[in-house]
Structure formats: C-alpha cells, structure tokens
Amino acid sequence: MSLLVTGSIGIDTVITPFGHAESVLGGSAVYFSLIASQFTPVRLVGVVGEDFPPEFRRVLEARPIDLAGLEVRQGSRTFRWSGKFEGAMNEAETLNVHLNVLAEAPPPVPHAFLDSRIVFLANTHPGLQKALIQQLHAPKLIVCDTMNLWIRTQRSALLEVFSLVDGVIINDAEARELTDRVNLVEAAQKLLTYGPKFAVVKKGENGALLVTEQGTTSLPAFPTTRVCDPTGAGDTFAGGILGYLAQCGDAGPASLRRAVARGMVAASFTIEDFSVGRLRTLTRREFDARLEEYLRMLHID
Amino acid sequence: MSLLVTGSIGIDTVITPFGHAESVLGGSAVYFSLIASQFTPVRLVGVVGEDFPPEFRRVLEARPIDLAGLEVRQGSRTFRWSGKFEGAMNEAETLNVHLNVLAEAPPPVPHAFLDSRIVFLANTHPGLQKALIQQLHAPKLIVCDTMNLWIRTQRSALLEVFSLVDGVIINDAEARELTDRVNLVEAAQKLLTYGPKFAVVKKGENGALLVTEQGTTSLPAFPTTRVCDPTGAGDTFAGGILGYLAQCGDAGPASLRRAVARGMVAASFTIEDFSVGRLRTLTRREFDARLEEYLRMLHID
User: Fold this and answer.
1) How far is A31 from chain B (nearest CA, A)?
2) CA A214 from chain center: how many Å?
C-alpha cells in the first residue's frame, strides 16, 4: 500500500560521548524513509536548499524512495541542527538550530502522490500537517508526530490535527505535557479521546507503549551495548511501524503490535552509528535476524 | 526447594500523590515473603522490637511463612521508615529513618533453617550478608540486593559478597554507580565479572534487564494505571523471581526469564495499594490471570 512521508531533511552536527559528526545527513523524513523503504517503496515530500550536497541525495536515491516530492529551492538554505547527547543519552540538548528553508512555504505535494493510502506526518507546524491532510484524496491511515513547541504554542491547531489522524507517535514528555497526566498509560488513553484510534508513546532506551481501544502493549527497547548516536531513533521507530503497516496493508491491533516491534528493531540499528551510517548498509536479512532475536527474547512461557 | 529470606521488617509512613498511610507494615523481607509464599513456603529471618504490632505479625502468619526466625527483641524498637513519592513516583524521597533494632546485632538463624537451598539476602550491611552466607550448610542458589549507601561506604565488603552469590537484583542507579557504566547492559555485564552468574537490573516503571552469560533479556513492567504506592515493588519483584525459582527448582536461563516475568507481575500488584494491602488479598488465581495477560502481551509473531 502506497506510503507517503513528509518531514524535515537536514544537515546535522552531533556530539555524543562516542565522538562527533559534522554536517552529516539528518532529518525526520530521511531517517523514516531509509528504514520504511526496507518494507515498501516510500514517497518523500520535503524541501532543501541549494546547498544540499549531491551525495546526501544519492543516499536516498540508493533506496526505493520516490524523490519526486523533494524540492530543491534555489536561493534557500537547508535546515541545520546541531545537538549534543550526554550520559544515558536519552535526550538531545539542542546547541543550534537554523530553520532556513523550513521557515518558508512548504513544498508542494506532487499530484501523483495525492492518492497515497498510508501517510506519516513527521513533526512540523500543525497548520502544515492539516494542510497536507486536506490535499489527500483517499487516505486509509494517517499518523503524526509533534513536539513540545507546538504543544505549548499551537495547542488548538494540534488538537485539530489529532482529530483528523488515525494514530499518533510521540515521546513520553510530550504525551505527559499534552495530557497533563503523569502515568503514561493514562496519558496515552487520554490521547485517544482527541481522536486517534491508537497512540504510541516513545520512551527512548526504555521502549514504548502502544495504546488502542483494545488494550495496552508495553515493549522494551532492543537491549544493546552498541549505542553511538541516538539521533533519528524516534523517526526510524516510526519508519519501521509505518513501513510494516504499509507492507501488510492492515492496521488492526495485532498488526499494530507487530509494527511496534519492528519499529523497536529499526531504532536499534539507527543508534549504532552516527547519522544514517548504519541504515545505509543495513540489509533486510540483518533486520529480520535481529527481529527474530527480539521476538524470541519476548517469548516467555 | 526450601526458600529463606532475610531483610528488614518495618513500620512505614508513606505519602504519595494518591494519599497517605501512617505506621503501616513494611520492610523488604515482608514484601518479599508475602509474594514468594504464593509459590512455595518461605522461611523468614528478621528482627523487630517489642513495639511490633501483633496484627502485623498476623499478616505474615496468614501465609505459609515460617516465623521461627522472626526475633522479637525486648527493649528494642522496630525499624521505621517514612518516605514520599512524587510525579512519576520512580524514586522515594526518604523523609525519616530510624534503624532502631536494625542497628543492633543481627537476628540468629534458626538451626532448622541452615539447610535452606535458595536464599535471598535483601539489602543490609554486606558484612551481615556475608555472615549469613557462611552459616548455610548447602545453598544451591544465593541472590542478594544492596543499596547506594554500601556501594559508597563498603565497596570491598560488597564485592566480596558478590563473589559469593549466584545472582544479584539491584536497581539501575545502583548498577551504574557500582560499575561506573552508563549503558545498563554494559553495567549488568560488568556485574557478572564480580562473580554472580546472573544480574537483574530493576528500572522501576520501565521494567528490568536480565543478563546472563547466555545473553540479555529486557522486559517491560506490566502496564497499569493503578499505581497508588510503589513502596516494596522492588522487593516483591525479587520475591516473585525467587519464589518461582524455588518452586521450579531450577535457575537455568529459561527458568530465570520465566522468573523475571513473574517478578514483574508481582510488582504490579504491590503498587496498587498502600503497604501490603493488595498482597494480603491477592489470590494465586488473580496472579496467574495477570501473568497470562502479561505473557500474551509480549507474545508477538
């Protein structure tokens, strides 16, 4: 089933206890697409500036990612972010952010993409998320992310978006702030009252919660000592979820549980190297082997 | 297989966002015994003062817990602790602690208990833990807990205890402090170099890690909105683990994984009420029903 993602495409500089990566490929739509394309072709909608390096574009071209919706805007500069992870590396400290082209008009959605059935709206201004939803002809499943900035400054616009989507994938701090609930199961249950049929709450190294009307599933992260750079872990988590749902064409409770497990495995690869280093070389065989290991770990009689 | 526990028996006062419980039954050995006795009879070694209320003793007498090792020391007062949980309630703030009888000589171990095969040493001074180990005639499995105080002040005595036990069950902050490792899988792996064959790292609402030479298992907590008072959750977690291991008479990797799952379910009941309120009424049927629900949640294909 056709899968569309829109989100940021950026140039990152990241410092972690394990080293430092300067001006590397990043952005939510990039991380999402690289892993979702392991399951199904991906249609990417995003905008970069004329400074976007051709070798970054080639990373995306090497995968089944349709770049018809990737606008290179002349006279503009690409989104840049720099951040630092310390200690348990559960949260990045943003050192610098230049929205650049992301602060301008959004990229147009190619006409050929408007029939997309499965859609992921990575974090951006809720107004833009709504505008994109309204262009779609026959979406079957729309899922969105957001961030604390919009929760604080665009709450009503954000709640309107939530009323239009089928699922949300947000992190624990965002879920707590938006719902004013400390208990994460309660927070996720309250998210459902805004409209979505499912809510996934990301807890970094502590895994995630999936809450639907049918119940709650709590899953751990894949335990690993190979943690180099957590940048993009949440976006690849979403990419694994949506990629799987698009591949299997179903979003019922059992499929959602399987999808979240695949998201967890996806994230465990991302963090093994800086930027998209590990995702570029990842094979489906490697993914499936780790997925089997993860599911075996959880299978207790 | 005979199961012995030694640890604190106390009178707690606890404040949580959901209320307040004054002078209620508490202590690591109490929480441990109440749940472990769902699986197998428990031999309890501990000491209280002459102020220990008879109704608290009756709570223990109502379960298959052998109190031959419960000393009531005349002229002494029972251990008292008061603490407060706030926010996500992951950690208690200690408001007051009176060691009282716990600062005196340890209780003698009844001769009839010295043949115990499975032994849990709840948190206490490492010197006392070692003294107890040395009295045992033919232990098959010894597991211990500890706390940050001993990590900071009795490091070499603690490492000596670790070299004498088969397993450790400690929390994430303790594992990090003791091993000087931030990554919890690495921390647990380093714990094994001190001697134990397995290490369980407790992460509160985020579940736990089990690390053996054969590999790592990460399990989530049972997701629940019924969180009233986390006091004793870690001790009941250990009680579920050891109770199951004593019942099945095996501590191989597969049994350990099953045991940790049972510990997780045990803890989920403890937190539903103040003190041992929920554990007093808990039936094995209720336990098994939730265990089945928990294992089903984790079983993904």
Assistant:
1) 24
2) 24
Q: What is the pLDDT of residues A198-251, one digit of tens each?
A: 999 999 999 999 999 999 999 999 999 999 999 999 999 999 999 999 999 999
Q: What residues of chain B lie within 8 A of the CB of A185, using their CB?
A: 223-225
CA–CA gap between residue A266 and residue A294 (Å, rounded): 11
The one-letter code for the residue type at A275 is S
Q: Which residue does chain A place closest to B259, by CA atoms?
A: A300
Judging contacts by C-beta atoms under 8 Å, the chain B residues touching residue A218 are 207, 220-223, 297
The mean pLDDT value of chain B amounts to 96
Whether A300 sits inside 8 A of B295 (CB atoms) is: yes
Task: For this complex, say whether ipTM is above 0.90.
Answer: yes
pLDDT tens-digit readout, A264-293:
999 999 999 999 999 999 999 999 999 999
pLDDT digits (tens, 9 = 90+) for A236-247: 999 999 999 999
Arithmetic mean of pLDDT, B269-291: 97
Query: Cα–Cα distance between A37 and A66 in angstroms, integer?
Result: 10
- Residue contact B300–A258, C-beta within 8 A: yes
CA-based nearest residue in chain B for residue A210 = B223
Which pTM was predicted?
A: 0.95
Q: What is chain A's Cα-based Rg? A: 18
Tell me which residue of B242, B254, B238 sits closest to B116, measured CA to CA: B242
How far away is chain A from the Cα of B206, in angstroms, using its nearest Cα? 6
Question: Please, what are the domains in chain B?
Answer: 3-298 (3.40.1190.20)
Kindly determine whether residue A207 and residue B218, on different chains, have CB atoms separated by under 8 Å: yes
Chain B residues touching A262 at Cβ < 8 A: none
Chain A positions in Cβ-Cβ contact with residue B208 (cut-off 8 Å): none
pLDDT tens digits for range B47-66: 999 999 999 999 999 999 99
